[in-house]
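Worked example 2:
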Amino acid sequence: MIPSWTLAAVLLAGAPFLHAAKVEDRIVAIVNSDLIMWSDMKRELAPERERLEKQYRGEDLRRRLNAAESMALTTMIERRLQLQEAKARGVDVSDQEVKQAVKQMIQQGEKIDERDPASARGVRDQLTLLKVVDREVRSGVMVADPEMKRYYQEHRERFALPEEYTLSQILIKPRSSDDTADAREKARDVTKLLKQGESFEDLALRYSDGPNASRGGRIGLVRQGELLPAIERGVANLVPGGISDVIESPEGFHIVRLEDKKPRQFRPYEEVKQEIQALVFQQKSEDMFQAWLADLKNKAYIEIKFDNAPSEQPTSALAPRPSPTSKP
């Protein structure tokens, strides 16, 4: 997936990491000609470490911190590779672009010190990442009409319209908390009268406590999702003219008749065409980004010197470790 790091996340990653014990700095990874230091990794990990230390203790904390450290190192390696590629491709971010981005962040409520060089570097790096991905990945993504139509056919449920019902109801409300059993029994008696052939409208006029009782209980048109869950379940399998069993809800006891049910419909292709184009573009961009990033890793010299790094990294996370004699 195309990196979703926000500018704020970049700045947080660059925030000072305070630690009581002084730890000697060391190399944790080599990425081509760049070194990733332990101090860099601590800064990257600081927000996540703080979050984990608030939630976990003991062995659980240690295990989660190890996983977070490995994830942080992977992220840093991938970021270095992309920044290196940006430099090789001549991708440049001007001082004015950095100032404008910082200004927008402040307007959006982000806390950022305009005079802090580390903050400016973080913003510049993020803008560089966005530019290089736009140039090397997104600019090459094309979405053809046959692809969009195929997506529409394969994901039709995504574009389904809610089912529509025309309903009538008889609602029996308990008069008090002690009256629940009596209200339930009254609803059952009304159901028996309906089965004996009495008019639904007449019974609604005589017994219903609902606001639509004077209209013979007619509710009218409602869409799936607008009904109380219990009622929705009660009418789901009814056919037009069918009457539900007694349905209990927080409002009372319902007897519902399905007058009509509109067959399930789907938004037409032309109506959702632009939405589909964006979805397909996003998916293709993600696939191309992963392929591009994998290619950068395959061509790179990556040596991990971090003790907690797992001996077997997922293929989607890190490039295979080269032998000590490997060349960039």
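The chain has ten helices and seven strands. The longest strand covers residues 252-262.
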